[in-house]
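Predicting structure from sequence has reshaped protein science. With that in mind, we have picked out one protein's residues alongside their backbone shape tokens:
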Amino acid sequence: MTNNTEQVCDENKISDDTQPDNLFDTEQIEKKIDEVSSLFNKLSDTIDTLGKWSESTIQVFFMELLRSVNASKQFLLCQVLFIPLLILFVFSTCIAVGIVFYSLTGQLLIGVGTFLLSMIAVLSALAYWQKRLMKMIGFTETIAQIKEGVDVVSKASKSLD
């Protein structure tokens, strides 16, 4: 046979003029790693923020609980004072009406009127204090902070999408 060029067909042999396809493009890998790292950082920040928020919410809850307990104690004390004074007021009014009709002249009427006005002032002060205490019973700040926290968490979760 003559010098014929034989073509070599070897699947395992790489020819010198073609480069293999680079299956692992380093730029794309670094980009994906940065994206994953960024997501983990955002998640870590969100978890830290959520932890701080929950801690402050618990503090607000206990603060409001103590305030509510103290206001409830004072409210009960006012109720204990209010009921007998109300009974005494009604009784005093009845006595005053009797005395007024008995003695339509002068000095005794001024004394009874002063007594009635002082009882009205005491009852009015107790009623005002009870209204004030009733406003302090409850967990309005805790509920507001929980609503705010839920809004922040939902916005943070939407930003991660």
